[in-house]
Amino acid sequence: MKLVGFDIFETLLMRRTSPPTAIFFELGKIVKQENPVCPEPAVFAEQRRLAEMRCYETKGSSTTLRDIYAEMLCCINIPDRDLSYFVEKEYALEKSYLEPISVNVDILRSHRENGDQIVYVSDMYHSSESLKELLIHNGIFQDGDAVMVSCEYGSDKRKGKLFKEVMKKYGVSPEDFCFYGNHPVADVEGARLVGVSSTHLPIGNPNRFELLLGEANSATLGLSGKFAGASRSARVSCDLKGDDRSLVEVGAGVAAPLLVSYVLWLFGEAEKLGLRKLYFLARDGEVMLEIAHVLAEKLGLDIEVQYLYASRCAWARGSSESSLGDWYMGDVNSGTTALDILNRLDVELEAVKPILASSGYQLDRISAPLDNKGVHFFREFIESDEFQPIRDQAIQKNRELIKDYLKQEGVFNVDGIGIVDVGWSGSLYDVAAEIVHEEAPGSNLHGFLFGAKARESRFSASKHGFYFDENSGIGGGKPLSGKEFFIMMEVFCCASHGTLLGYSRQDEQVVPITESGWAESVHQWGLSGYRSAVLAFAGALEIQKSDLNAVRLLRPSLGGLIEAFWNAPTSSEARRWGSFPWNCGQGEDSRMEPLANRRSLSSEFFKKILSKCGVKRNNNPWEWRAGSVSMSSFSYRLAFHAPKLLRKTKGHLRELKKDMRH
Fold it and tell me: DSSP state, 277?
């Protein structure tokens, strides 16, 4: 039999909030509500933290929770008779926020099955009985196990003294004692100082995204700490290995906070505006709809949510809305043909052959890639008087299909509807609003976007943006350029089905027609692993209806997450997310390209030689540049960053020269 020790907090048990001090803010909200003489939550949390520091400075490892509150209450002028109340409240809250780290608990169970003696060793102000109760509550402690805690021995793990107490109690030598813990100093170095072998289990420690979220806990009224805790809980619970871990870490640490905060804001706005139903537009809305189902049940909201198949491809064919007009000639690449343009318009070639011929267009070029002259010709041709009757006929046919689909999905039956999209101009909402107000004048209809760009339309007043809203001047600086923001959010909102190409009538039903080939590609990329991390975050989040009012306070923290991932990905993140199958092109003439590509100086040199020789390469105009750089060769990365480093060095030298003059 061997003696096996385990640390408790962040090794076997973790809080659904982060950092650990974030729980003091939640406690502050509870005691303030129950006892108005208590300070505000942020003040309470800070005083609780400072009281603990002072106690450890004076009492050292013997500090107990009662000591901490005795120190704190005398500073905030609350009678000592309330000491037990605060001690019990904190312990109860701690207990409710803890959950086991299953992967580490499995290690413990394997040792127990081997017949090893289990001892839990913790630097903590809770008593051994209190810690035992927490372990029992989470299904970990069993008869025969033992708890040894610093406050009862006046010794801690950092210098190895508590480990000596453990070996003394059990009468074992260092060779017969092994230890597991999350802290590299207290649990690993402290054990090794006294000859005990120690294994580092860091999975419960917050990663860089969770640390960024946790920093703003007070500024977000405790919400970012809950988000950090949910991120960690989701990350720990998802069992993926290697580069696939990046799907989980970015999914739970960046995508989920962005999407969940948006959905929470949607619910808050829906309540304010008296909306009874939210329609999430395909394809970006698929993951948000799943999040909405989880959160609506968690919050006990009486609001209906539903999916609505929509796309610029399908709805542009049925609308004269000017914001969709550029769609037909948008994303024209080196392979786009005149026939592709007509397909986007849903116009048969036979219907326009006479007009094209009379306009001087060579019909034998109809399937050839368009050059600049051909693009210019078709821009003018689409707006010509001769083409307008054919275009109007196609618009009317598709408009009737869209209208019947919206009617079939109940859009005209509910007074109080929100149309949810990611962004950015809200043109799809404009189409929906145009049709809804025709069919049901005066409807209480609103459009919601993650980010709303400035664009005048008849329905601007009923459109609302979460992260930024240029129409109303809400939102500060964006952490990415508009193009980069668009790419990132499109990736995070990837769906399990292809783009909506249009609708067809089947057995008196209007049936969506989606692009084929996408489902298999995104499945191979790892959609299920990513989606499970996002939904695990939503399920783990400790949230209340009162938190809905604070959601927009998260935006600075969300910006930090975006910059940390998108602008500075790790090589593992770049490889995994860079393999995402990005849809280039429009509708039926689209193609899939990886989001990022590994580069080297030699490959770039070779491409330039080909370009000089007139060989065109079909590059992805939506490439994730930072991802490509991160996964590229060292020489390429050095060359890429050299100009920036040189500019920075020159700036420092100028400042130094200026200082020396003074």
Answer: E
Model confidence, pTM: 0.90
8 A C-beta contact, residue 226 and residue 16: yes
Query: 24-53 as b/e, with b when 16 or more CB fall inside 10 Å?
Result: bbbbbbbbbeeeeebbebbebbbbbeebbe
Q: Which of 230, 252, 223, 263 is nearest to 467 (CA)?
A: 263
Q: What is the pLDDT of residue 610?
A: 45
Mapped onto helix, strand or coil, the DSSP state of residue 310 is coil
Closest CA to 375 of 419, 333, 436: 333
- The low-confidence residues of the chain, meaning pLDDT below 50, are 323, 606, 610, 615
For position 615, what pLDDT does the model report? 46
221 three-state secondary structure: coil
In angstroms, rounded to a whole number, what is the distance separating the alpha carbons of residues 121 and 139?
17
Could you read off the pLDDT of 202-261 as tens digits, one per residue? 999 999 999 999 999 999 999 999 999 999 999 999 988 888 999 999 999 999 999 999
Check the CA dihedral 263-266-271-277 and report its sign: negative
Q: What confidence score (pLDDT) does residue 607 get?
A: 56
Separation of first and last alpha carbons in the chain: 72
The token pair that represents 298 in the structure block: 């968690």
Q: Which tens digits make up the pLDDT trace of 161-203?
A: 999 999 999 999 999 999 999 999 999 999 999 999 999 999 9
Sort residue 209 into left (φ over 0), alpha (ψ -120 to 50) or beta: alpha
Closest alpha carbon to 121 in 95, 151, 144, 101: 151
- List, in sequence order, the alpha helices (H) in 312-364: 312-316, 338-345, 349-358
Half-sphere exposure for 147 (CA within 13 Å, toward CB): 23
Three-state DSSP at 98 gives strand
CA nearest neighbour of 32 among 291, 24, 357: 24
pLDDT the model gives residue 338: 84
Do strands 417-420 and 445-452 pair parallel, antiparallel, or not at all (unpaired)?
A: parallel
Say how far apart CA 99 and CA 138 lie, in whole Å: 7
Pairing of β 581-584 and β 591-594:
antiparallel
Confidence at residue 318, expressed as pLDDT on a 0 to 100 scale: 82
In the block, residue with structure tokens 């209208």: 403
Q: Would you tell me how many other CB atoms lie within 10 Å of the CB of residue 365? A: 15
Q: Tell me what pLDDT residue 659 has.
A: 67
For residue 369, give the 3-state DSSP assignment.
Answer: strand
Q: What is the rounded CA–CA span in Å between residue 88 and residue 66? A: 10
Tokens of 449: 């976007």
How far apart CA 587 and CA 575 sit, in angstroms, is 27
